[in-house]
């Protein structure tokens, strides 16, 4: 805590010195960054109540509201809804406060900053240029920040998630290495979870091909897990890749965090391929997350007698994944990617779009789909303006309906009905 100003007396010359200028309040961007670091430690990954609260109020204001509420002064008006906040929403927030109460006194922003510095981690937040916009498709379940060891730009690189069983076979590992090497040769990155088996083989294949790979951990970036892959993770960092986590340095990898980590792997990638997976496998969880995000999912077949491939066969049979057997088929699954996340770039002024339609188009994804309400929030326009813009963009052949949402048309489809 900073000491308060004092009233100095006269100096030896008889002059009263000027009182020191109080330190300036942190800029809003810095307050947001600090608050997001605190949120990353305060709540468990995937806490959608916290995510919705931060989306509604901003990270810093939401944290202030939590602190006041935990101190016994819950002011619902600070949420901007006041007495209009529905009872179920109040009940969810009240239960969430109970969850957060025990941990809040232990979360200190300065300690988090020191832990990040000790581990060599960068804190990447949504306002940063290196924030991977793909994560925003997770909505209220999106991470508040990413702790990144290595090259933050690697996390934004278009890429494919290669995932699979820890108890892998030599066949599965060979396929993972070959796919990863082929993908980096095509200019894509490889995303996986750093575990034994298929994950490690995918990372090694990317490294052998001279490409970048991203390791997504369930615990802090300073806690290599499994420990036997510590040297592999260091090699990833050394060669321009990244080791990332949504929980701060020092955080332990727990079962629930592994399950939530899978959603990040799926969200960071343009497509997910399950190389080898048993009937019940965490890799299948990653595939289902990708499918919910409307990202392409592939599965590599194996011998019908192999329990190690039963999960892959199940994904294909259930229509979650398409069968892929080589790099060419994975690249076909991914399709052409623009720079960044594969979203349609803002049109040039000569394209004839009005400013609102152009702004809306910037936020319509090529991979996945967004509903009009979400597009309005991202584009900073009204819902009525978004609906009008989408109608005009549809007539121009630039967007298409996908269920209740909208996606950008690939360039090759433009002009088609």
UniProtKB/TrEMBL annotation:
InterPro entries membership: DprA, DprA_WH, DrpA_SLOG, WH-like_DNA-bd_sf, WH_DNA-bd_sf
Pfam families: DNA_processg_A, WHD_DprA
Entry-linked NCBIfam families: dprA
Biased composition, class Low complexity, residue ranges: 9-18
Protein name, as recorded: DNA processing protein
Residue ranges constituting the Smf/DprA SLOG domain according to the UniProt record: 123-333
Chain spans, region Disordered: 1-32
Gene Ontology BP terms: DNA-mediated transformation
Residues annotated as domain DprA winged helix: 344-404
Superkingdom assignment: Bacteria
Record-stated family: Belongs to the DprA/Smf family.
Entry-linked SUPFAM superfamilies: MCP/YpsA-like, Winged helix' DNA-binding domain
